Amino acid sequence: MSAILSIRDLRKTYEGGFEALKGASLEIEEGEILALLGPNGAGKTTLISTVCGITTPTSGSVTVAGHDILQEFRAARRLIGLVPQEINLEPFETVWNAVRFSRGLFGKPKNDALLEEILKKLSLWDKRKSQIKELSGGMKRRVLIAKALSHEPRVLFLDEPTAGVDVELRKDMWEVVRELKADGVTIILTTHYIEEAEAIADRIGVITKGQILLVQEKADLMAQMGRKQLEVQLTSPITEVPEALAAHGLELGADGRSLIYSYDTRGERTGITALLNDVAAAGLVLSDVVTRQSSLEDIFVGLVAGEES
Length: 309
Description:
By secondary structure, the protein is of the alpha/beta class. It is 33% helix and 28% strand. It is built from ten helices and 14 strands. The strands form three sheets. It has a six-stranded mixed sheet, with helices on both faces. The protein has a four-stranded antiparallel sheet with strand order 2-1-4-5.
């Protein structure tokens, strides 16, 4: 795959001296879903706003399919669709007119067949004559996506697309994103929902304090940085980890009825056999043993905490 979006050493300093982006660099491949994770104030929205031409960068460069966002603004912007975090729609406008208007803003010729196809894919066709104010929050977000897709962009930014949407609708939105990818649309997703990135992204990017810490294949990230935990559950509670088990680096569970052992899945030896032998030798009786794989959330929290320390 080739990069459709190239961000190089992007910096943005606002009046007053606040530096929102500090040399961010990122290559996004055509046809992929990239999830950009970061805490509040990390620079996610500033990055999106800069690429979309809403904010002017202080320095650095951005190209979309080879078009520089400053030197060839119109050509670059025509290739981008943006679904903002805030729902800002004309309440008395119909769904159909709202989407047709968005297409016209980009100078695209009338194509009602295409708009019909978009609305049907987003389960909005039956609502096309409804006024925006009559729709649920989830349906309004679908209208935002339809508007963003109306001019046939090749790159789609989704800024917190499922914020405030219930779990069932969120999963429906994930399916919509997968279908968009199948249609060849490149998607950059910012989200606070770690499970969202874990469910649909091809690659994960982590940004904090205006800097991109890493961008990596999701599966590789989980394999390289993920750890497993072994929870040894005991029949009787204890008040502290026995001295004989100190070498294993165990944590005592809150109720005193479990011992938590963390190990690297990439290691040649996990140390589990030795641990269980030592637990038995210490006179502790096991009731159960449970393993847990680190989630993307664990990895993300660890990365951000390490950067801030």
